[in-house]
Amino acid sequence: MARPETEHAPLPLACTPRTTPASGVPVLARSKAQELAQAALLASTLVNIERYNNGERGGVENELRRAVPVLVKLGLFCLFTPDEWATGANPGRQLVGLAAKIYLGSERDGGGPAR
Fold it and tell me: Which of 2, 37, 60, 63 shows its CA 20 to 30 Å from the CA of 69?
């Protein structure tokens, strides 16, 4: 499935759908356990953003940063780009957006995730 060209910045590498050779249908094979784990990660990320917005620091920041590689694989930043996450008045979203920009930038440079 070809990605339509737009005037926007190119999608992160994780947003390019993998397709089966014969059908061109995106590959989304996941087990129930994977689906539950992914849903739990998304839910915990939202809770941690709220905790961060309420003034918690330290561990919650680390949890949000550690979630970014999986959120990238899940395609969260295909829905809203890291720049969209990083703008606005929500400090938790800003943290996740900036962490995603760092992660995706280091991934493109071939250095792996930034630590």
Answer: 2
Amino acid at 96: V
The pLDDT tens digits of the residues spanning 67-112 come to 999 999 888 998 899 999 999 899 999 999 999 999 999 877 665 5
> Could you report the per-residue pLDDT of 15-29, keeping only the tens digit for each?
655 555 555 555 555
User: Considering the domain boundaries, does residue 49 fall inside one?
Assistant: yes
For residues 93 and 34, the model is more confident at 93
Phi, psi (deg, nearest 5) at residue 77: -85, 5
As for how many domains the chain has, the answer is 1
* Domain that includes residue 56, residue range: 30-108
Between CA 34 and CA 36 the distance in angstroms is 5
Residue 24 exposed, middle or buried by CB count within 10 Å (0-12, 13-18, 19+): exposed
3-state secondary structure of 4: coil
